């Protein structure tokens, strides 16, 4: 079987000053005093990360996108970022014009810091604002406050960064529709090139999971979160943002190229504690603690950078493609599905989608399937569940 060559790399920087109450990501809390080179913990991690990068087989041409996610990548010093980028460059090469994105949290950097990153090639920043209201930020366990947000936004505007995005969370405890509207207006006023909006997910293992039940007070009702989604879609579209993905809006020319790799189900390298990679049909999630990650890097080096994971069955690859592809406004090309499953696939699709096609929530044209915005996006999970059932029946002997 031949596989597409990866041209994207995700780098996980698993450090935060404190853990937010809704977060179950693989991170280590380091407090506020130790940062950058002053933190032995971060430097030790960066060294292991670079060991992992160096041990990894080169599977394709130079990288077209690199994404530093976390955690809080802006806790890296400029020198640490340089060390990682240099290692990537040496191992895989970084193509001219590559998109290099970095997640940054308000209150963890200043203008010199941003410009230092930009000088190294960072050309897209994703600013984790989440909320503009101090009470909401406090209730979520966020470290930063509104004053940090205002300063961070000023830095974005004065910096050399050519493209920046602002992240917001909807559906927070005690958040009203009116507050959400205000938040959207605040976001637009900062004039980012891109806005990401995530609806709060309550993970059972987090403080929020122990404190709140989805849909119950003080969390907004389901009807309110649906209204929040519609309001965001209307408000941001009117403000000139293209709703190109279920949770993402961009001004022309500012879509996130790296994240499109995921939504188009293309392969990518993943590096660092807890990071997932998808190469040669193998999906692999790295260990989620510092110690187990280091042990894993040691054995990975000894095996010559081989993952030895089973190749995902074709059905799974295709259902993955369906799941991520239907997040995009343009939807998916069905040609590959028809090739894999034959004419029975088209019959199944028509039967599964009949009610959604009739209501206009799904649209089938020019052999492409997409969900409408916002009605189709709002029921994407239901549509996907129906499609997965249909595919399962097709493939069950
Ligand atoms: S900053 Fe992000 S990764 Fe860190 S604890 Fe908060 S939500 Fe989790």
Structural summary, described in words:
With 397 residues, this protein is an alpha/beta fold. It has 2 domains: 8-263, TIM Barrel (Alpha-Beta Barrel); 314-395, Arc Repressor Mutant, subunit A (Orthogonal Bundle). 43% of the residues lie in helices and 19% in strands. A 9-stranded mixed β-sheet has the order 9-10-8-7-6-5-4-1-11, sandwiched between helices. Strands 14-16-15 form a 3-stranded antiparallel β-sheet. Strands 2-3 form a two-stranded parallel sheet. Strand 7, helix 6 and strand 8 form a beta-alpha-beta unit. The protein is globular. The two termini are 23 Å apart. Iron/sulfur cluster is lined by residues 16, 19-20, 23, 25, 27, 70-72, 105.
């Amino acid at each position: 079987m031949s596989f597409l060559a990866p041209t994207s790399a995700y780098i996980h920087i698993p450090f935060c000053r404190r853990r937010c109450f809704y977060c179950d990501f693989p991170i280590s809390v380091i407090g506020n005093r130790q940062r950058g080179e002053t933190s032995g913990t971060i430097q030790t991690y960066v060294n292991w990360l670079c060991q992992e990068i160096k041990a990894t087989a080169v599977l394709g041409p130079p990288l077209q996108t690199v994404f530093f996610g976390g955690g809080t990548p802006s806790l890296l010093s400029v020198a640490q970022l340089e060390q990682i980028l240099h290692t990537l460059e040496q191992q895989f090469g970084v193509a001219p014009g590559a998109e290099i994105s970095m997640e940054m949290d308000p209150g963890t950097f200043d203008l010199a810091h941003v410009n230092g990153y930009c000088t190294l090639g960072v050309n897209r920043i994703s600013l984790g604002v989440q909320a503009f209201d101090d009470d909401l930020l406090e209730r979520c366990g966020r470290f930063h406050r509104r004053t940090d947000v205002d300063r961070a936004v000023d830095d974005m505007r004065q910096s050399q960064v050519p493209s920046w995005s602002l992240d917001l969370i909807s559906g927070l405890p005690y958040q009203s529709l009116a507050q959400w509207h205000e938040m959207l207006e605040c976001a637009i006023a900062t004039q980012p090139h891109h806005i990401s909006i995530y609806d709060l997910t309550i993970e059972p293992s987090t403080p929020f999971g122990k404190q709140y039940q989805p849909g119950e007070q003080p969390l907004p009702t389901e009807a309110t979160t649906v209204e929040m989604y519609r309001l965001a879609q209307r408000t941001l579209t009117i403000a000139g943002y293209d709703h190109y993905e279920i949770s993402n809006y961009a001004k022309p020319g500012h879509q996130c190229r790296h994240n499109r790799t995921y939504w188009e189900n293309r392969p990518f390298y993943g590096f660092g504690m807890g990071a997932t990679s998808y190469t040669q049909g193998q999906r692999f999630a790295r260990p989620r603690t510092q110690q187990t990650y280091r042990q894993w890097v040691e054995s990975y080096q000894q095996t010559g950078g081989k993952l030895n994971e089973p190749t995902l069955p074709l059905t799974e690859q295709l259902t993955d493609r369906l799941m991520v592809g239907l997040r995009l406004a343009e939807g998916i090309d069905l040609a590959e599905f028809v090739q894999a499953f034959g004419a029975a696939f088209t019959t199944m699709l028509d039967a599964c989608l009949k009610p959604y096609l009739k209501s206009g929530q799904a649209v089938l044209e020019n052999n492409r399937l997409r969900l409408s915005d916002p009605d189709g996006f709002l029921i994407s999970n239901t549509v996907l569940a129906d499609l997965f059932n249909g595919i399962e029946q097709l493939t069950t002997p």
